Amino acid sequence: MEIITTIRNSIVDVFDVVDGGSLRFLTAADAIIATCALSATAFGAPSAGVITAAAITSDTSTAAGTIAKAKLYTSGGTEQATFTVGTSGAEIILSSLTFAAGDTLSVSRLTITMPAS
Predict the structure, then answer these.
(1) Is the predicted pLDDT of residue 117 greater than 90, yes or no?
(2) C-beta of residue 66 within 8 angstroms of C-beta of residue 109
(3) HSE-up of 3 (CA within 13 Å, CB side)?
(4) Dihedral pair phi/psi, residue 14, rounded to 5°
(5) SS3 string of 51-111?
(6) I need a labelling partner for 7 at 20 to 30 A (CA). Which of 67, 102, 107, 115 fits?
(7) Dist CA 27 CA 29 (whole Å)
(8) Within a 10 A sphere around the Cβ of 53, how many other Cβ atoms?
(9) Does residue 67 contact residue 61 with C-beta atoms inside 8 Å?
(10) Is the pLDDT of residue 80 over 90?
(11) Is 49 exposed, middle or buried (0-12, 13-18, 19+ CB in 10 A)?
């Protein structure tokens, strides 16, 4: 099955609900290690089933722990998506998964893709 671009764009466009929300990085037990704020307009317009996040604010005061996953939240705190996190082969790639208290976690780029098939 192939999904046409118009439908793919409509599907990823639902992430407009996270405008002004956050991307939280969590341990396997759901303890929050870092929370990075999303822009008031979190994602640009979709193109070919892909949306790219606007600037994401770094968390400059992380908690100590090992990150296992990330979750995308609305500004009201409603969870919208869960992502795998790793140093390779995951949906979100970090240079390290282990953070000490007070470290900085930065996200340089975030894209969400709805594949054609």
Answers:
(1) no
(2) no
(3) 14
(4) -65, -15
(5) EEECCECCECCCCCEECCEEEEECCCCCEEEEEEEECCCCCEECCCCEECCCCCECCCCCE
(6) 107
(7) 5
(8) 21
(9) no
(10) yes
(11) buried
